[in-house]
Amino acid sequence: MPSFDIVSEIDMVEVKNAVDNAERELSNRFDFRGVEASFALQDNAVTLTAEAEFQLQQLRDILRGSCAKRGVDASSMEVNKAVHSGKTFRQSITFKQGIEQATAKKMIKMMKDAKLKVQGSIQGDKVRVTGKKRDDLQAAIALIKGAELGQPFQYENFRD
Question: Which domains does the chain have, with CATH numbers?
Answer without folding.
Answer: 3-8+99-159 (3.30.70.860), 12-95 (3.30.70.990)
